Amino acid sequence: MHNAEYVRSYPENCWIFVDPEAEVAHNDYVIAKISGNVVFKKLLMHEGLCALAPINKSMENYINTNNFTILGRVEYGIV
Above 80 in pLDDT, residue 64? Predict the structure, then answer.
């Protein structure tokens, strides 16, 4: 059964498991490299453009650029 209201949660200090070989898609959680910094963001894709959205809404706004490298897709987290 699919719960459309289910939202993944990654509490501070949880362990995340990343697959560096997985294909990524719109709304996937990813680890990306931007200007030498490694970040944990939500990937947004639309009409060939990509953006990275913050996981924590109090963090910086969307990064609207294709100038980042996806290092892997987050598969799951363990508290």
Answer: no
